[in-house]
Structures are given as C-alpha cells and as structure tokens.
Amino acid sequence: MVLLNSDELELGTAIPDFNLPDTISGKNYSSKQIDKDVVVVAFICNHCPYVIKILEDFCKLAASKKDQVNFVAISANDPDYREEDSPENMKLLAEEYQFSFPYLFDESQETAKAFAAVCTPDIFVYKNKKLAYHARFEDLENALNDLIKEEKVSFEQLPSAGCSIKWRHAL
Fold this sequence. Notes:
Elements: E1 4-5, E2 19-21, E3 28-30, E4 38-43, H1 49-64, E5 69-75, H2 87-96, E6 103-105, H3 110-115, E7 119-120, E8 122-127, E9 130-135, H4 140-148, E10 161-164
Parallel strand pairs: 4-5, 5-6
Antiparallel strand pairs: 1-10, 2-3, 4-8, 7-10, 8-9
C-alpha cells in the first residue's frame, strides 16, 4: 500500500456531470439531482484503510449536515482488483455504516477521471457547483462551516492522502 496525495486542482472549476448507479437504491443518481448550494463528492472504496479510518466520522458528518449539504460517495475502483469493491459489497458497507447519502459505482471510471480523482479518500466540495475545497477529511467540517456561512474556505487546503484508485488496465 502506497500513500498517494490528491492532485492540486484550481478552485472555481465546475463540477463534472455524472450519472451513476447507486448501489444502495439500485437507481441512477446524477449531478442534476444535487439540490443544495454545497455538495461533497467523496471518492472512497471499501477496502482502503484510510477510508475505513474516517468512514464512521464521515457518515456522522453527512448525517449532521444533511439539511445544508448534499453528500455523494463514489467508488471507481476496479472490483476485479479487490472483490471487496464490488457493487454488492458496496451496498453491504453502506448498510453497515447506515449511509444517509448515495454510494455510486463508477464502473467505466470516466467520472473519476472527469473529477481528476486519484486516491481514496479524495474529497471534493463544491459551492454553487464550483470547486471550493479539495483537501483532506480532517478539515472538511471546518470547510463546510465556512461555505455554509457564505464564505470561502478560510484556511490552507492540505491534500487528501490515501490509496490509489485501482484503475482498469486496457487490454
């Protein structure tokens, strides 16, 4: 397991469009369904120890901010690499942790590429569909509090770190 930092992205970048299957509901969820000014899009997976370390707190934060912030989790990992990252196992994890948000499967990995996601967790926060925060989980609650108050994030954004996304290899 190699620790990988998220790439630095330009703030103000528009949220990419996406339309992916939600492993919890079985229905597709798209960027057009975002109905709050602030949205968290987190690239996670089931097996990454960095995700597992934050998952309970991430779920608590999502539940506490659900009236003000849309949360969306996406796994782009190739389940052929780790069976734990299959859609069926994603649903089981979501049930175990009582996700209050969609857990989407990016089978083509095109959504992860559109976001420029590279690791798990890789956390993107958009305000009015423009990138406002792309950094580590430990500062996410403070970033959300700043953005909910109609302000910019008031502190330095340090890159997220975690396991690499398990990309499919072209044959």
